[in-house]
Amino acid sequence: MARTSETGILLYAQGDAFSDGSFDLRSFELVITNYRMIVDHLLPLAIGQKTLTDRVKNDVKYKVEVNEGSVEIILNFILENHELLIAAAVSDGGNQLASVISKLINGVVDLRRALTTILQAGLKPTIHIDQSIHLDKSVTYDIKTGNINLTNPQFIIGADSTKSALDRLINGIDGSNISEIDLNHQKLRTKLTTKDREITGSQKEELATQIEVVGRLDMAAITSHRAHIITGNSRYPVTWDESLRPKIKQFFDTEGIVFKVRPVIDHRQFKDEPIGFHVLDCWSPQTQMHV
After folding, report:
1. Which superkingdom (predicted)?
2. Which of 168, 183, 199 is the last residue of a domain?
3. Residues 90 and 160 occupy one common structural domain
């Protein structure tokens, strides 16, 4: 019978790292830290806020139990602030909030699994939102068309915001020290195993589109063809071919340089924004004006 909690979200991690009544500190820290970060990212979605405030953090209390061969962490939500209770649409001080967040966790994991399956089939995923109550599952997909259907648009936001923490949590499951991790609330169970490593990481593609970006080249490793472009308030990793190295060295750490680039996207993310660029050429507008 699967371990669960009627009032909170139970995290259950099993493996050699938690045997003989003690636990490996690094494995325990990996589980605890990334579990907390996942919940921290999903909690604002559940209560209708943009970010996690210190006020909300103080309303979350932990109950931890360590049993032989496993670690069990029960996260109960204690909400006493009247405004937060209304925002979260709960009346029991936090138990319903555990249900909302556990559904978000389950939906995020299912969405990332569906995305990976579609990408592995060589298809371009297309996401549709259908909030009809008649649907049996919160995430479904069609392997023939690449369509992914969601009952909650917050799964997309949650998948992006929790990606780093969920990746670390999943990649920590090595089959021995940590053999599996469950995130359970009542009858809803989200089980993570070594097989889920295939949903982590990135699937990058350099687009054929060429655009111009104005900014400054920073933190350059010239010989390895890697650096960052700082433009506006954004910072993007960039690469270039060996033939461009003389120009890169010439304009390193100089403001207002124009870079002709190809955008690099990650198909495992749910944003339309590029995650980086491949530089094709660069020049100073001032130099061209004097020509």
Report:
1. Bacteria
2. 199
3. yes
Render each residue's pLDDT in the chain as its tens digit; 291 residues. 568 888 888 899 999 998 776 788 999 999 999 998 999 899 888 888 878 888 777 776 666 666 667 888 888 776 655 555 555 554 444 567 888 899 999 999 999 999 999 999 999 899 999 876 566 689 999 999 999 999 999 999 999 999 999 999 999 999 999 999 999 998 999 999 999 999 998 889 999 999 999 999 987 777 889 999 999 889 999 999 999 999 998 988 899 999 999 999 998 888 778 999 999 999 998 766 544
CATH of the domain at 276: 2.40.50
* Same domain assignment for residues 181 and 215: no
Tally of CB atoms within 10 A around 139: 22
Residues 209, 157 share a domain: no
**What is the total residue count of the chain?**
291
How far is Cα 11 from Cα 2, in angstroms, rounded to an integer? 11
- The two beta strands, 257-266 and 60-67, are unpaired
Domain that holds residue 267: 204-289
Q: Tell me, yes or no, whether 167 and 283 share the same domain.
A: no
What is the C-alpha separation between 151 and 110, in angstroms, rounded? 12
